[in-house]
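How a chain folds remains the central question behind the approach discussed here. This step matters because it turns folding into a mapping between discrete strings. The sequence in question and its structure tokens are set out directly beneath this paragraph.
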Amino acid sequence: MRERPLRPLDVSTVEVHDDFWDPVRETNREETVAHQYERIDEGGCLENFRRVRDGESGGFRGMVFEDSDAYKWLEAASYVLASGEDPALRERVDRVVDLVAAAQADDGYLNTFIQLRQPDRRWTNIRMVHELYCAGHLIEAAVAHHRATGDRTLLDVATAFADHVDDVFGPDGLEAAPGHEEIELALVRLYRETGERRYLDLARYFVDVRGRNDRFDWETDHPEDIAGLPDTWHTGTDWDPTYYQSQAPVREQAAVEGHSVRAMYLFSGAVDVAGETGDEDLFGAMERLWENMAERRTYVTGGIGSTEHGERFTEDYDLPNDTAYAETCAAIGSVFWNRRLFAHTGDARYPDLAERTLYNAMLVGQSLDGTEYFYDNRLAADGDVHRSGWFECACCPPNLARLVAGLERHLYATDGEALYVTQYVSSTAETILAGTPVTVDVESGFPWDGEVSLTVDPDEPTAFDLALRVPEWCVDPELAVDGEPVDATPGEFAVLSREWTGDETVTAAFPMAPRRVAAHPAVEDDVGRVALERGPVVYCLEDADHDVPLDRLRLPTDGDLSAEHRPDLLGGVTTLSGPALDPAGWDGDLYRAVDDLDYDETKFTAVPYYAWDNREPGAMRVWVPAPLDE
């Protein structure tokens, strides 16, 4: 681990002005955040808080973790407020914050499912009822809200709840880990915001107790606790210890297992704990688990969690396409985990994976107009898979909104002596380096163009390091300061150590040649198939662009691929095209010798995977067969 961890720049210190991300973020601000508020209100989430505020009982609506949707919405809205004034949104946020505060019990407890339905069953079913999961999202929202507005109302609610949790759990209280992780990473954020060491100690406790104490057997000890919960929550095999990462202590786990979102939140919290406490053993376990995930359990899009049965990881190289689950929330959790791993290592492989995930597995989760969503993300479909306006379990939409609204937190990182540029998004950042205020401006053509320029403007000449990520997908990168070439190695950071005066211009060229990729031969679904990439973007084929049914098309493994930017298509995208083959001469034949195969020459057009299902319904493929006789 680094002696000095890298911290992301605060949202309020970064201004994004990017041709690609500005429309996405404007849609998020103008459409998505408003749309999601209406849905959580219509769905009963806010009504649950009103009923608790008014002293009522019963009448709870939604999933047991319904409170978390309000908290994720508050976090997203707070990031929007941090990036610019919005009086109407601020008024709405204030109303929701006041509502949440009014629902809190005198002792700090807050969970509307328990308060309305089972007020005498607090903390008796922490693996299924999600009390600590909701508490974690409350804390994350409170930190974001405090930083955006300076108002302590929600932060006071969160600290009171955290104090209550600290009184209940620990070696002298309840010894158990929550079924859905989130409290761990949130408590570290609260520690950083308040300086209160007890919150960090409690986070470490929750990490270390997992896999050591499974004291609750709810169906036999507390059958009343499962009344009214879906049968699938307490029957079958989904709730084995592996499902919620309790099969072994975290430090001893050998592979990423179980529910993929829970795993990402747990591992994010564990990295934070390891970094804050200098726990090399725990951090080493996180690096080992990341390698298992990145090298054997991640889709080409960056998606994770391959099966809908338990929304979980399965086994190495089990990455089916047409049944891929790859939950949007899991992709978002992966981005969070990678950012934390990078903070304590400075290793470029973590923001490389985060980049892949952001532009593909995360962004695909929302329609271009910002009002429909994918919960799971297939890599192949036959025209019957589409985004939905909302879900009964609506965890993904507000999760996506908070990541897009807080994108600034994923672009830069600093330890006070160096500034790392981790994602190439046109933006202006202000920070303090070597004690001097510094402004950095990045102009980027990503993800369609690899040309990047940076200007560095310190208040006075100052020596510090500027570290630029050289993407692992790039061949023949070029980097220069005032025209003087600098060494640049793909998959590493190029560190520019010098005294900066404000007169320098840094330029980078990261060529984005289209490329065909193959999967490891153990990935059964992808044997004999190719996928297409360009820069950080993964592509797919859709029926809308082809006269030949997609199942007939074959993509040769050679031949020129061309890229064309289409500002009129799907909000403005770069498409790929190239030679394809259509099997011919099969009239009356069921089988034929490979030597006798014949093909008609045709062409394919590929669009970015994130943009699929925004036109007329039709089939989609990420992995396309190559000809048998190549």
